[in-house]
Amino acid sequence: MARLPLVAALLLAALAMSGAARAHHSGAMFDRSKEVSIEGEVSEWRWSNPHSWLQIHAPHNGQPEALWSFESTSTQILVKQGWRRTSLKPGDKVTVAYNPFKDGAAGGNLVRVTMPDGTVFGPPPKVAEVAR
36-131 is classed in which CATH architecture? Predict the structure, then answer.
């Protein structure tokens, strides 16, 4: 009988953790073998967990302007890379490096953002990218 509260507590903990695990999704929709970049204007910078999101206006598939969406990582990881909630504001001109969606949709996995003054948010470019 003394074990019943312990078993109940363990079951509750397992149920609580399973919800978080179910909510997380795969990154299979991104082509991580490619890193490309695009210039645009920030529409929204959504600082949130488990993923932050950046939306910009930029040309896409012959259209002069489309809304691009870039999924990022958690705010904890972003802070370690130098990001802040206030790093990007609507109207900011940016160059976004990203892993594109495999289906060609406007957006992908956010790698880094470069501001017009040269400020870079995110991990630094790989040596091979700098040489290009």
Answer: Beta Barrel (2.40)
